[in-house]
Amino acid sequence: MTDALLDIVRAESAVRNLRAYFDDNGPRLYSGRRFESLAGGGDRPDTRNVITADDLVAVQTLSVTVPTETAIGLLEGELGGRIGEMLAAIPTNVELGTDNADELVADGQAADQAWHLLDEQPGIDYVIAGKLMARKRPHLIPVYDQVIACLLGRPDHVWLQMHCRLSASHGVLREELARLRSDAAIPATISILGVLDVALWMHHRPQHRRTRSCPGFGTVAWANCDQDCSSTQPPDLTLQAPAAEPAG
């Protein structure tokens, strides 16, 4: 049985897709190429535990916008303070798929609490909440939007499922993603999760349809996970309302 996820990551087209996506001078510019790196990154030491205007612009590079009143609350209000307290409990140097990362994305932990608090705000849905979290902790929290959800078949508890997949078989997927990043000659500062997101998004975006009749729905399964993914449960991102399609 072939592994569809590894097949996508290992394909020659993945190298081309990543080069195109991160090319600052290509025929099509993908604004998402600056999501992690804009203004030094959301996890830089001086602002890693606070939502900044740079972070709000960064999520716009992925074609979503935080509503004005919610943005003001994040920048200057009590909401921003509460999110900051939660961010302070989430390390910046732990990668999903490595030892103990599953504990950080478990139900009730700071990342889960912050995601739910964001998701409760007016005009914020699971996609925007996840992208804000991914901006602040790019090595731990994946970008998860409609295109990726469709390709994966909208699995339950996607953070923990992704941790399992990245750690399975002694981390072979993480190794392949690092190789892909090197072969594509994109900055080494781009996270493994960022490489995975772009590889999957560029693979599925041309055929994506917003229904379960999409020809690519569920074609990439979470196979070969060699640990129990049911012991903890990060947010079930499959039960929220659909969001706008992300573009470059």
Task: Describe the secondary structure blueprint for this structure.
Layout: H1 4-10, H2 12-21, H3 53-60, H4 68-76, H5 78-87, H6 101-104, H7 110-119, H8 126-136, H9 146-152, H10 158-183, H11 192-204
Helix pairs in contact: 2-11, 3-8, 4-5, 5-7, 7-8
Descriptive report:
This protein is mostly helical and 248 residues long. The protein has one domain. It contains eleven helices and no strands. α2 (12-21) crosses α11 and α3 (53-60) packs across α8. Residues 226-248 have low confidence and may be disordered.
What's the short story on this structure?
The protein is an all-alpha fold and 248 residues long.
Major β-sheet profile: none
Query: How many structural domains are formed by the residues?
Result: 1
Based on helices, strands and strand pairing, what is the structural class? mainly alpha
Distance between the termini: 33 Å
The helix fraction, in percent, is 40-55%
Features:
about 250 residues; mainly alpha; 11 helices; about 0% strand; globular; disordered C terminus
